[in-house]
Amino acid sequence: MNELLLWLGRVAGLGGLLLCLVALGSRFSGSHWVAGFQVGTLLQGGTAAMVFGGFCLLAWLVENARRG
After folding, report:
1. At a CB cut-off of 8 Å and minimum separation 6, what does 15 contact?
2. Is the distance from CB of 23 to CB of 34 less than 8 angstroms?
């Protein structure tokens, strides 16, 4: 479980970062829509993924601190 939290946090954070970069890049190019989604929706989804990744890594840190 401990290793799953670590990798889930890394993957979610990286995926969220990539999603935010796609949203920002498309918005700076003047587009409001990407693959049928509004750019703001993609940005919120990317932010949510990064927050979820941060919580997974926090849970991993707490579990490692308990083990000593």
Report:
1. 46, 49, 53
2. yes
How far apart (Å, rounded) are the C-alpha atoms in residues 57 and 65?
Answer: 12
The token duo for 37 is: 């989604």
Residue that is written with structure tokens 């990539």 in the block: 18
Closest CA to 42 of 27, 62, 61, 63: 27
Helices (H) and strands (E) in the chain — how many of each?
A: 2, 2
Q: Is the pTM of this model over 0.85?
A: yes
Tally of residues, the chain: 68
Structure token digits, residue 18: 């990539």
In angstroms, how far is CA 15 from the centroid of its own chain? 5
pLDDT tens digits, 19-52: 999 999 999 999 999 999 999 999 999 999 999 9
